[in-house]
Fold each of these.
Amino acid sequence: MGRVKEALSLARPDEPVAEGRQWRDYALMLARAGRLDEAIEVLTPHLDDCWLQSNLVEMTEGQDRDERVLELVTPLAEGTRQARAKGKWHHPGAQALNFQPQGP
């Protein structure tokens, strides 16, 4: 109905109480409204959730945002590598390892 801005405003989750799923849903709404960069920024503070890392990659696939996504997931993947080197296998960035380009 041409009231995208109003709809997005109503759908935005409340900051202190919102859960990952709510941010994901809101980010998807932004992406579908042609506001992909805003959608990425909405998810960025919540990327300690492996599930949201996957959602970010899926949402941006084929949208010419690979460089930005790699900027976001690389520190998570590096944190996982460092944790694993210390014998810690559970780390919020574990999923991020799957999104980095693999060597030859």
Amino acid sequence: MATPISPDRLVAALRTEGVKVVERPGWRGHNRNHKGPWGPVNGVIIHHTVTSGTTSTVSICENGYSGLPGPLCHGMIAKDGTVYLIGNGRANHAGRGDGDVLRAVVAERSLPSVNDADTDGNTHFYGFECENLGDGVDPWPQAQLDAIERAATVLCRFHGWSSASVIGHREWQPGKIDPKGFTMSWLRERIAARLKSKPSSGSSDGGSKSGGNSTYVVKSGDTLSGIGKKLGINWERIAQANKITAPYVIKPGQKLVIPAKASGGSYAPPPFPDGLAPGRSSPSAKGLQRALKDTGWLDPSVPLSDNYGPNTQKAMTGFNRKHNLFTTGRPNDPAIGRRGWDLLHRLAYGN
């Protein structure tokens, strides 16, 4: 049990943890306290919004819907990792959930299966809504996942909680599926690792500048592609600057030199390869898969292969749908054309 964190301390702690914060107008007094108690608080619930577009998502989280007034969370975490502070106090995010789950969170033990909706979660939980369609296809950029981890860690640090105090909406309320696209056990492992060290100061890149370059200290779970995406630089440049070769293994605590971004000019994607098509085998499929991983469309655990197989096709279908790129005119097109190839590589390596 704990008294909720004050607005000033929350803002300061988020920034100390390296989170980019935007304070929305009036957020410090925006709440539903007239509808019930706020606190004592016992944990954090992570949600996805089922929306796209940061501006509209912030507006929905602030104002709510017909029959469900805002604020709908305490903070909204955008695709780029920015945390928009929405409310301070009771928020309409958790609803009624399983009291056995609350007791497990308080005791910081393994969660039971969620069966009942007998307890008011809006009293007991902070809520972060995360911008995502929640369809299992919309990607989770590394910057956003990093911000979710950091924001939840802030509240655990402040209250002296372990990572067991951070749960997903689906673990609290029967019938919910959010957040969809990553597992809560994975997130709790990341939070537990971060809690073992002091907060990182400054920007969320975790780096320090030295001349034209900077350094980055590798954290548990980091990959070169994830670091490159987070810092806005081609991961292959990072590998080259640190003399890292295939299979590109990095270790927690390792210091990486981050080369300065090139100024001027524009990124030129590699030439579109002949013969790259769903169901076919081509060495170029590996380059496609690597770019899909580096933009968050393909699961990092999927091994690189010459085969343009089902995983690659599913990722390309989502990418094409997002960017209205349908080379065959079909609504679920798994093929990639020249326009898609160029756009995908610019998004992955354009900085």
Amino acid sequence: MAARRTAAAGATAAAGSGEDPPSVELDELMPWSVRPLRTGRSWVSGPDPAALRTRWERLAAAEGAEQERLFRPSRSRTPHTPVAALPGRSTTGTGRFAREPGACPDPVRIAHGPFDEQWLLPDHRLIDAARPELWRVGDERQLFAVEHGYVPQAAGPALSVTHLLPDGHSPAGRPGRIRPLYRRPDATDPNLAPGLLDVVRTRLGPDEAGPESVLAWILAAALPSPSGCRVPLPADAEVWAAGVSLGRELVRLHLRGARGGERPRLPGGRRPYVRAALPARPTGIVYDAEAEALVISDGRISPVPPGAWEFTVSGVRVLELWFDRRAAAAVGAVPEGAEADGLEVVGSRGWTPEWTSELLELITVLALLDGLGPRQEALRARLERAPLISRDELRAAGVLPVPASVRRPASVLGHQEEGPEGQFALL
């Protein structure tokens, strides 16, 4: 842990000293980025898809002032706002919700910040800023790198990778950027600085220079800084190969078996099991370090390695935050700023079996990620001694500065999209 903080502190000092730092900004390597989603109302997402359907039905059945109250209007959205359909979601309405709500759309799985998967009602009329450009490029081959936001001296990874549509939520309230690996569907037009792959192939070998190899390297080597993630690029092929190998393992764990990969599993005897059933309305979570167990009210899960319990992102303990969100949903707790009879508390049905399965999987993922910590620290130690591809070399190759055109979304519209009130969108 101390080595990770030392490396991060070194990157921060270089970034703030005025000298040309040896690493490159992630914003220069993956130049197209999108801001986090802004739902505008918390009831449109949550850990239980059944609750989202119930909320929709109550909102659709309400009328007039009651529907307005439940909706929780903002400057961007009210029940009377017509909007374009989300790309790939033509079954949702585009007319005014108050007049024609339509059928409830199927909730979609999203990445709610690092290492948390929740559900979202994919109706553009309900979301202040859904970032349609992300929906256009999201398909079965897309991957998203999500920055966690900079927190001084905080341990934990600087970014995560997901195959799900990410909302960009940050545990510490300092959201980073969302960077798709590809600018177009079907894994075409990599979101990498023009010429970067040519430089990598020339210096480090053609076998390790595909877009997903670069993403793997970034995940393994990225360091947080006040200006955003920074990434050292080695000039040593052996260091690069070691980082890519580590990064691929990290990506596999982040994806949890998606994209045809193996689901994460701990060795026999170290796999977590439910030793005592979790209650329907849990009130708290405690870690028993001596027994390596999570104690959830009267429920109990073990073994849980200390590294899984202590795993943090932006200074926030992942397991504790994950549990708190679901415990609040299970008891129908009123979120801060919400009304006691608002939609946020509609649909509570207690702790679900699905959440228990997800918790066991999350413990496994965090334990395995923590187990890769020594390899990641060893890589960073090698990088401190290894020669790096300099910014001057990247400038000479035309990689830097990055053209403004690649910082904008690509034109990916291969079909007409429905605009407000059923008209076709003009893009």
